[in-house]
Amino acid sequence: MMVVSEESRHVLYQRLEEVLGRQEATTLMEHLPPVGWADVATRRDIDELRVATQRNIEGLHASLDAYRRSIEREIGNVQKDIGTIGVRLEHFETRFDGFQSRVDRLHADFRTSMLAVMSMVVVLAAAMVAAIKL
């Protein structure tokens, strides 16, 4: 296949101008592609490009859909983890409340015991004072 150069196009124009005249030669040259025929896209080229583009788009859709499903799974896993943490926090809170109740009881028992001991000390001190006066 011969490559059409600007020089060969100019020579063709000059010959057409001799045979057909300036206006007809110009009209005919304007109907020729500006480059070689190898660079002109055919309907088949465009159809093949459309099919390839459609395949690429479908592939992208499939990839995006798989990625979306993967993210949804990850979100589900995170939600499960959050639920597990919530249950553990509730369990910890229950245990802490139980511990707090025991500390409160021990504190109350300690106050009662201290009052009892102090009362006994006062009674013993009074008994000692009474015994000394006798």
List keywords for this structure.
134 residues, mainly alpha, 2 domains, 3 helices, 86% helix, rod-shaped
Shape: rod-shaped
Q: What percentage of amino acids are in beta strands? A: under 5%
The main sheet comes to: none
Mean residue pLDDT: 89
- Which range best describes the helical content: under 10%, 10-25%, 25-40%, 40-55%, 55-70% or over 70%? over 70%
> Low-confidence spans: pLDDT under 50, at least 5 residues?
none
What structural class do the secondary elements suggest?
A: mainly alpha
Whole-number total of structural domains: 2
Work out the helix count: 3
| Gyration radius over CA | 51 Å
SSE string: HHH
Strand tally is 0
Distance between the termini: 145 Å
Short description:
The protein is mainly α. It has three helices and no strands.
Describe the 3D structure:
There is one protein chain. The protein is mainly α and 134 residues long. It has 2 domains: 1-40, no CATH class; 41-109. The chain has helices spanning 6-20, 22-30, 43-133. The model has no long low-confidence stretch (mean pLDDT 89).
Topology:
Blueprint: H1 6-20, H2 22-30, H3 43-133
Helix pairs in contact: 1-2
